[in-house]
Amino acid sequence: MFSAYRVFSLLHPARPRHPLLQALLAVVVVCAFVVLLVVGAIIGLLVMAVALLARAFGFSRPFVFNAGVRPRPEAASSAPSQPQSNNDGDVIDGEFHVVDKSLRHGPQA
Exposure string (b/e) for 40-65, b if CB count within 10 Å is 16 or more? Predict the structure, then answer.
């Protein structure tokens, strides 16, 4: 016959009643936690070292952060004077202007 208590008791074993065994079990649990913590730290340091070596020897993409960078005037002058027509309908042609950050939220009163 199926008993839910039997399944629960297998998943949640009773602690030993003897105080010395309880202390020994607590020491084993703390040691297991420390071992897991040290193994995790070693793996993290190893991953960081491999990433540092990969970046040092050029095996990774360079990090580029272009927030707030405005296009140079030379780039605008090198653009073709006549826009090329695209019959695919995937490209919207238009003119764009850079807006200052101070004007983004409206005029200050």
Answer: eeeeeeeeeeeeeeeeeeeeeeeeee
Please say whether the beta carbons of 48 and 40 come within 8 A. no
User: What does the alpha-carbon distance between residue 16 and residue 24 come to, in Å, rounded to a whole number?
Assistant: 10
d(CA 2, CA 23): 35
21: left (phi over 0), alpha (psi -120 to 50) or beta: alpha
**Cα distance between residue 68 and residue 9, in whole Å:** 62
Q: Count of H helices and E strands in the chain? A: 3, 0
Helix (H, G, I), strand (E, B) or coil at 19: helix
pTM score:
0.46
DSSP secondary structure string for all residues of 48-86: HHHHHHHHHTT-SPPP---TTPPPPHHHHHTS-SSPPP-
Summarize pLDDT for 27-54 with one digit per residue, the tens.
Answer: 999 999 999 999 999 999 999 999 999 8
